[in-house]
Amino acid sequence: MKLLASINKEWLLLIRDKGGLGILFLMPMILVIVMALVQDAPFRDYQEQQIPVLFVNEDSGTISDAIVAAIHNGKAFHVVDSLDGIPIDSTRLSKAINAGEFQIGIVIHKGLGDDLKSIVDSQVDGMLAGLIPGGDTTKIEKPAVNPYISLLLDPTTKHTFRSSIRSAIKQFLSELEAKMIVDGLTSKLAEMTGKAPEVDLSSKGIVQLNETTATSKVMASDVANNSTQHNVPAWTVFAMFFIVIPLAGNMVRERTAGTIIRLRTMPTSMFHFYAGKFSSYGTVGLAQALLMISVGFWVMPLLGLARLDLGSGLLPLIYVSIAASAAATGYGLLVGTLFKTLHQAAIFGMVSVVIMAALGGIWVPLYIMSDSMVFIGHLSPMNWAMEAFNDVFLRGDGLIDIISHSWNLWLFAVICFSFALVVENKR
Amino acid sequence: MEAISIKGLLHQYKGVNTPAVNQLDLMIPKGAFYGLLGPNGAGKTTAISIISGILKPNSGSVQVLGKDWNSDAKSIKQSIGLVPQEIALYDTMTATENLKFFGTMLGLDSKSIRTKTDELMKEFGLSEDKNKLLENYSGGMKRRVNLMVALMHDPEILILDEPTVGIDVHSRHMINTYLKGLNEKGMTILYTSHQLDETEQLCDHVCIMDHGQLLVEGKTSELVSDGHSLHHHFIELTGKQLRDG
Fold first, then answer.
1. Are B166 and B141 in contact (CB under 8 A)?
2. Do the Cβ atoms of B104 and A264 come within 8 Å?
3. CB of A110 less than 8 A from some CB of B
4. Does the interface predicted TM-score (ipTM) exceed 0.85?
5. Is there a contact between B90 and A8 if contact means CB atoms under 8 Å apart?
6. Is A221 in CB contact (< 8 Å) with chain B?
7. How large is the average pLDDT for residues B200-207?
8. More confident site: A222 or A44
9. How distant, in Å, are the alpha carbons of A41, A164, A301, B17 from that of A45?
10. Which residues contact A173 (CB under 8 A, 6 or more apart)?
11. Whole-prediction pTM
């Protein structure tokens, strides 16, 4: 009876605070959409994005033409070789990169093709001299050239982006060099034997990389790797924990208004008061999670993002949402109990949630952090919640597995709730 | 039997050098309308908080209707009604919803809550406004509801901490008349106020305290029998130094 009255009171206060209610649901929804949109690009292959590249070819000849063709034909880059209708030179290219107009510039220097060819020829001659009986490799002259392609990068480009660009360029240069060596060898062998060997240089390579995603449920790699699938769980958890601020604020207001003091003079346990808040705000948290999941399922496809795949299904998803909401609500009760002013509770609540999110891998995945940070990250309830959501969305775990994985969220909720109650009763 | 009996009460807040209540002894007779007076910082609210069970004293004993807070807390809570200095209500709930919530927390059943709510609404002139949100009430109306909550379970002892602060003459008159009526029906009332003329009219017993200690206690009629008002005695005992800083 008292618990029901307490729940009813919380609902009345919640539904009549239209502004607060709007913030509780609208802000997380905006957050999850914005973050999924912003983070969409890093989840796409750079090759899909056709990054604009300033390009200057100072060389001429078949080899440099082949490099130019490889860059033009590759999916990774959109080649820009003139600005305002004027062909660019290396000076203009440097200026444009330096001004931040473009992120990448490539310059093929004069003589690159000839230098490359002379090195390849020398290597081919050296190889054949080593194979032919009586051949003298010491007589092979090594050309004193050092061919290179200049890659200019905007200083603001991130390390991972630079690595991707570098890898893409190195890949087609390696392919070109390998092809030139093989061509050189086959032509020399044809000269020596009168018969040209047939070599099939498959552009795909000989050993293929068979990539699959290790999930309990068969999940297409494009689902496992899209922005929606990764961002919805992470930012749902982040937004759910932000319930700490309105909840703690509500508790501080009750204390300053004197309603808590009044209740303490009544023949009732503070458990009812806390349980009423826990169940009401916990339900709000669950509704927030379901709303954000609905946004991922229905709204994100309308914005050009992938539709959220519900992974192992609705039941495990609801269970995880309840567990995460319980943890967030328990934490909010504790913050609201420990702090005496609205200011203290709001600032501590907000900063602690941001810290827990940062440590818990909401922004940056834990697997790229140092061992000590990974250890600390695994202590963050937000990491537990995100991993529980990932179990559903990405790993496709069933309800039983998820129940056994998410016990820590419940334990955290119970500890926070009990500690808050003990502190309140000690006052 | 005394309604409230206090012996050697001492309470000192953390970080404060002097005790808020210092070796306080009080005997409040059953059925009394008892005025607890003192300047700001005298220790009135601390004493009331300890009597109501909100604060635990560092030492000393408090008995309410012969029962001890340590062993009979639930029973004592059922016997007292506290009207805090603040409007301890939910602004975005109606008066009826507030009374229903606190009534349930007091352990009353739905029927009793309905009956008592109707009765109090009528007596305090709020029947027509019972479904208005409290945020739309005037200060005086809120003060009335603040008092009504404490009366929902018909307590034997009513404790009021400056219940008429910031309200107009009519609301104050209504509240004071109602309190007088309750006292005449046998309810013990412990009342703090800075309105000394009002206290002199209402209270049959008063005590004046300062710096956590009792300065004088007795029947109001005996205290003012020398022809001087309560206000005169108050200034005589507590001095003229300003206390609101």
1. no
2. no
3. no
4. yes
5. no
6. no
7. 90
8. A44
9. 8, 10, 19, 68
10. A67, A149
11. 0.77
